[in-house]
Amino acid sequence: MTYKTYADEENNLKRLEYVLSFIDEDTLRFEYMNNIIHVDEKWFYDDIDKRSCLVFENKSAPQRSRRSKHFMSKVMFLAAIPQPRRFIDLRRSRYRGRDETCLRNIESVTRPVYKSSLLDGVILAIKACWPRDGWNIRLLFQPPNSPDMSCLDLVVASLQAKQHQKVFNRIENRINPEELAYTDINDVVQDNIFLTLQALVICVLREGGDNQYKIPHMNKAKLYREKNNLCSRRIR
Fold this sequence. Notes:
236 residues; mainly alpha; Nucleotidyltransferase, domain 5; two-stranded antiparallel ribbon; 6 helices; 34% helix; 7% strand
């Protein structure tokens, strides 16, 4: 038995409104989700507090030090990753020469910064893939106290696992592995994520908006072999 995020009646109502937006009222089938892009952010710290290592006999463990372990630099990633902003370094340092392209940390990610990342990064990338006009972009917010309704938890977990396999000392070295891990996610994984979301929608409807449910086992591998793993299944 695991703890669930506490949700009051207002949260349950918001969750019901959210899941009903995925269902066609006339056919009682799931709406096609091909026109929905889930956007989420994740903070990746420069390093983790503790690491395990194998030390040979008569050898000492590598020394790790920083000015303060309470203030580690971190990088924020959007699941729909925009191009990082690059700058020309005007001064020479021990990490790079003068006039080399570099990346800089933002002091704080505020609302204008996040809005700029969405408008200049995510939305422009979407329009580049489908250049026709006639856009009708709408924002659909995830209900409060509903972390299990996020499609991107699996994606973020894989990115973080890649990050902890190595030690990095520059921002560029931290970003590249996450971008490679993101591009390695195949279509099967994405289909499984959306199938899980549809299963959660059914669970929320059965519980009247509450989150006291267990994620059902769907045997996704069998559905994939039978080519039955497409979104848009009838609500049962």
